[in-house]
Amino acid sequence: MNRLYLTTPLYYVNAEPHLGHTYTTIIADTLKRYYQSQGIETFLLTGTDEHGDKIVQAAKDSGVEPKDHADRISALFRSTWDACGISYDHFIRTTEPYHKQTVQEVLKGIYDAGDIYFGEYGGFYCYGCERFYTEKELTDGKCPDHQKEPTYIQEKNYFFRMGKYQQRLISFIQSHPNFIQPERYRTEVLAFLREPLEDLCISRPKSRLQWGIPLPFDSDFVTYVWFDALINYVSALKLKGQEFFQDFWPKANHLIAKDILKPHAIFWPTMLMAAGLPLYEHLYVHGYWVMESGKMSKSLGNVIRPLEMKKRFGMDTFRYFLLREMVFGQDGTFSMDAFVMRVNADLANNLGNLVSRILAMQKRYFDGVVQPLGGSWSEEDVKLREVFLQAGEELQRHMERLYFHRALESIWAALDRTNQYIVQTSPFLLMKDPDRHARAGEILHHLLEALRMTSNFLVPFLPETAKEIRSLLAIPEGPSTAEVPWGTYFQPAHIVRPPAMLFPRIELEND
RNA sequence: CGCGGGGUGGAGCAGUCCGGUAGCUCGCAAGGCUCAUAACCUUGAGGUCGGUGGUUCAAAUCCACCCCCCGCAACCA
Asked: What does the alpha-carbon distance between residue A21 and residue A342 come to, in Å, rounded to a whole number?
C-alpha cells in the first residue's frame, strides 16, 4: 500500500489564522485529495504550537492565563479549518500530554547519547521585553520597543550538538536532489551549510520561562521553541501507535513557508539524525503572499480573513485564486482586483458558463435525456477526447512538481477547447434541422463527457464544485469515474439535471 | 565581492531546470454566433524578453560581467 504523510507547520497561537496559514493548509488539503484520488493512503496533520515567551506575553496582554489564551486561539484555528473544509486527519496541540511525553523521550534519547550538553550563552537582554536581542535587531544599539540599551548577560543553558551533523546533512541533501523543493531553497540551504554550523540552544531557565515542556534531565529548565514544535510531526504519528508510525513516518512530506526553512531544513534533520530516526521524505517550501497595498497588517485593514472570503465568495472560489495565482515557491501578490479578474474570467465566464450552456441545451433539446453515440466520431469529437486525455496527463506531471498553477492551466486549456468545440459543431444550429437532431445529441453526449472528466480533474482543487458538477450530471456519489473510458459512461435513458449557476460574476462596488 | 530571488507587449503574470515559431488574463480594434452567467468563438494592433559580451546552425532559456528592485544574515515560529 502506498502511503503519504502530509503536514502543515504548527501554527503559533500568537496570531489568528491569516492568508499565509490558509494557503499552506489549502495546499496540503489539495495534495491530500489528489493523492487520495490516486488510491494512496494519506494522513494529513495540522495543529498549533503553544509554548514560549510570546504566548506568555500575548496572554498577559489580554489578561488571561497562557493555557486559556492557547485554548482560545487553537480552537479558532481548528474551527477555521473545519469551516474551510480542510480534510485533516489529526489536529495536534503542543500542550497535549502525549506530545510532551514524546518530546521528553526524544530529548532524553539525545541527551543519553551525549549530543546535548550544558554550556553558556551570552547575549543582549532587554529586561523590559524579557528576551534576548541580536545585534541586527537593535536600533542604534537600543531595544526598539523600550528605547533602552540592553544588558549583556550570560546564562547557562543546554545546547544540541548540531554542528556534529553538518557533514552528514550536506551529503544527504546532495545525494537526495528532491529532498528540498523547489530547488531554489535547496540551493539556499546548501549555501548556508557552507558556513560552519553552530550548536543550538534548546533550553530556557524556569526563572525566565515556565510556559514550556520541562527537560527530562533537568527540571530547572524548559525546552525552547523548535525542539518542542518540530517533534510534533513525530508525536502525532506515535499517538496512533508504533505500527502507524513505522508505516507513515518514512513518507513524511512537510509543507512550509520560506520563513521557517532553516528550522525545517537544518535543525530538524540533524535532530532526527541525533534521535536515530529516518529523515522525512520531502520538504516543500512556498513563498509569501504580498498584499498589493503594502505589507499585510491589521492597521492597514487589508488582512484577508479566510472565513470572510468564504462567506463572500465561496470556499472554492477562494481556493481557486490561491492555487492558480501563486507559483509554488515564489512570492505572489494578492489584490482584490486580481481576485475579481481571475474569478470572473476563469470560474464565471469559462467553467461556470460552460456547464450552464451544455446543460441548458441538453435540457431544452432532449429534456435532459442523454442521447446515444453513433459508431463513427467526427474529427472534432476525437480531438475533444484527446484534449482531455492530454490534460489528465499534464495534470499528473504538474502535481508531482507542485505546479498547481500549471495543473489548473492544463484543465482550463481543455475547457477552452470545449468552448471551441461547441462553436465548431454548433448543435444549436443542427437542432433547426430535424434530420440532424441525432448528430446534435451525439455532440451533447461528448460535451457531457467533457464535464464528467472536468469534475474528476477538479476534485483536489475545487472539491465542492466537483461534487456539484457530478450532481448536475446525475452521477452518484462514490469513487471517481476517471477510469471509465470516454463515451461509455452514460447509459441509455440517463437524465441529467437542468443548468445551475455555479459561479456568479463578481461585481465589486467601491466598498 | 555574505547568501538567495526577481527584472518578459499598456497593466498583472506564466514560460527559463530539459535552447528551436514569445504564451495567459485584463484592456484596445474589427468581425462572428445566439446554446449560455452582457457569456462564447475568430482575427488584428502592441514586445530589441533589464544591459553588454560570449557559446551555438539557433538563446527569454546556457556562460561571464554590469545595472535596478526585494527577502534572509542564526536561537527571532
From this structure: 22
What type of residue is A443?
Answer: I
Is A126 a residue of the active site? yes
- Are A93 and A142 in contact by the 8 Å Cβ rule? The answer is no
For residue A121, what is the enclosing H or E element?
A: strand A116-126
The 10s digit of each residue's pLDDT in A75-117 is 999 999 999 999 999 999 999 999 999 999 999 999 999 999 9
Backbone angles phi, psi at A326, to 5 degrees: -95, 135
Q: Residue A182 is which amino acid?
A: P
Residues contacting residue A284 through CB under 8 Å, at least 6 positions apart: A27, A181, A253, A254, A255, A256, A328, A402
Q: Which of A255, A198, A241 is nearest to A26 (CA)?
A: A255
Phi and psi angles of residue A429, each rounded to the nearest 5 degrees, phi first: -80, -40
Q: Which nucleotides of B are covered by protein (CB under 7 A)?
A: 3-6, 12-15, 17, 25-26, 32-42, 71-77
C-alpha torsion sign, points A218, A221, A224, A229: positive
User: Out of A67, A148, A176, A298, which one is annotated catalytic?
Assistant: A298
What pLDDT score does A500 carry? 95
Q: How far is the CA of A175 from the C1' of B16 (A)?
A: 25
Residue A297 has a pLDDT of 43
Nearest CA-CA partner of A22 in A310, A232, A312: A310
- Cis geometry, peptide bond prior to residue A182 (ω within 30 degrees of 0): yes
Residues 6+ apart with CB under 8 A from A133: A123, A124, A125, A126, A143, A150
Q: Is A473 exposed, middle or buried (0-12, 13-18, 19+ CB in 10 A)?
A: buried
ipTM attached to this prediction: 0.86
pTM score over 0.90: yes
Pairwise CA distance, residues A344 & A464, whole Å: 18
d(CA A256, CA A281): 14
Q: Report in angstroms the alpha-carbon separations of A194 from A166, A169, A171, A191, A267.
A: 9, 11, 12, 5, 15
